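Re: folding output
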Amino acid sequence: MAFVVPAEIGHAPYAAPLLEYLVRSFSRVHIIAIRKKLFSSLSEDCWLIYTDGRGSSASHIELTVCDEFKPAGQRPKPNCFIDLKEWRTTWSRRLRPYLLPEKVREIYTTAIRDPSSRRFGDFASIGIGYVSGDNDFFHLRPSEAKRLKIPAEFLHPSLRNGRAMPSKQITHATVAAWTKSDDKILLLRLKREQELPLSIRQYLDSSIGREARLGYKCSNRTPWYAVPDVQVPDFVLSYMSGRSVNLAQNLAGITCTNSVHSVRIRDKILAKKLLPLWLSSFVRLSCELEGHALGGGMLKLEPREATRILFPAEHLLVGTIDEALEDAVKTLQGWRHYAH
């Protein structure tokens, strides 16, 4: 059997059951990972998959990693034989780590097995921000709030997307800059059974308010105007990233939409020790390995993937491994077509 398959075969959770079926149904399973687009006019990256020996099971997965596919009369030779136990346990049934040199995989595996290493989820809770149901209605510019005479106590500064997120910290100066630019940063934060002033009732009953309440999210909650799950996170984490995943400390007490991730610290002592490693080559590589590529060169991190970001034991960071890790980060960025 031979198929052209989406490159998601290398990392998507829904690809794992397919690969499991193939290794249990064929004696030979061979994946051809191709970096350059097989079809230049498509946004979708594609790999190839071959199987043989139906009715038996495979002892390993064969992998050929190549920069560009060139048609030939025979299959390319595999340059990696993937141990199924390692693939299932260490790499959570993902093939993407095998795009890296064995030396780098060994460094990462050593860190996984070290009891002093920690996952992000060991000391933080990571989830999506609130879903308003109608962002244009529920988010106001400062000038709009002033014109509509919305009292300040019903407004909360909010980060609407990762593009507006600064690196490292969100401060009061950050919010002041958003305010000066008159960005749509003020969330209309209303609660159930709350007495509302006339100005807000008039806004809710305006033409855009009557339209907003008909939306799916708004029409399925009571009252329709009370946005649920509004929280003030300790940090905000970018959901989709280019060069690197951004983690910004929330010093200004803002809230955030589901376009970014809300991070709440459970173990402050551990966080204080480990979060300074965020920009290290190891943690940036972990973001690449635990996240997954999207079209256009973007790296996407779902909340569950973010909880798996690995912070290595301190003693593993000594030595001359940085260069190898930096090269590995660039390799994976190249596979997702991120332009440096």
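--- second protein (sequence, then structure) ---
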Amino acid sequence: MTDTAKKRQIAIIGGGILGVTLAYKLAGRGLNVTVYERGDNLGGLAAAMDYDGARVDRFYHTILSSDTSMQGLMEESGVADKRHFTATKQGFYDNGHLYDFNTPVDLMRFPPLNIIQRVRLGLQIVYAQLESDWRKMDVVPVEDWLAKFWGRGVYQKVWKPLLRAKFDSTAESVPATYIWSRLRRMMGTREGVTSKEMMCYIENGYYTLIEALARKAEGLGVQFHLKAPIEEVVIENGQAAGVRVGGEVRRYDAVISTLPSPTLGGLIPSAPADFRALLNKQQYLGVMCPLLILKKRLLPYYVLNITDESIPFTAVVETTNLIDPQHVKGYHLVYLPKYLAPDNPIANWSDEQVQAEWMKHFKRMFPDYNVSDIAAFIVQKAKYVEPIRPMGTLDEIPEIQTPVARLYMGNTVMIYPDLGNGEAVTRYSAKVIDRVMADMVGWA
């Protein structure tokens, strides 16, 4: 820690997992850090909610045994004793039937595909692990890549509905990197010849980690301001000089934004017009993600993938097949997500309309499940979830150091081709910190 670092005042906009991680690590380098969060609590998409005295995640999150950054933060923040590893299972819902899809044996028995298609699917999963040059896949449509290696039959039966589910109407512009990244991430957590998928959860939800990191950061002098929306990033002579909040200008040596690109674009009216246009151009998938709180278990799977395109939700995610129900007062938690393109009208549906439509299909899928065992149906939604990165647009990814001196940014747009999960985001924090610390040497 240097005397120069002690004098530096840094403002971080956004109190999600990236903002909190940056605050903790920058404070550890000796900087004076202040975090501004517009919400009532920290966490962003990783925030929690209370139900009947149990704290549960608003949205489901995946932490893998191979997520070294997240595992390290758990150790540093002191919540490793609340971490539990579990072997999970997944399945497919096809034509009214449920099928296991976990081991090579399950794959070779998978009825929706013929034997040749099953072999091709298995070979392509292996190929994805061996392919390391993601840039050449950035200009290849995901449909072409999947159909080439898996065949049109596998694509139509398995991948097309999954792409529709994940990317909504934007699926045709998606590059092959998205599937490549997902296959590599998920296969990286399988252990041994049994191919068991190892995931972990933290007692009382993902927010437990954020809460612990925030406490550690506060111990290092970080100040967190909640219900404090930034009105403007103050720019003077082409340099970020502070932020305006509550009508008051607060001055800082540097400002780091962790906000979605369009949100930042609206806060910097004095920045170069072409940079603001770049930020405002970036589109995101949103999500409609009802949470069913059940009195009894629904499925044996953590994730049930759905190939039926008439069903609005993309999957059935029963997180209490990962989380021990004892940590959520014996309830069973089921998320029914639907990813939404920017123009999808479902984003504007009322909670009542969502519940009526979702439950209609839920009852069709699970006719034997007693609806009296559904304790609650809670609609959760978010606007900015997954950046839409069309093919051949790498030049539209912003740099950490923006065209405005001492204004830095980090968000899920910038971690491509990695996926927008806690592991990739917290790992990216190191790049932001390295850039800020390197530049600081030359600050007047």
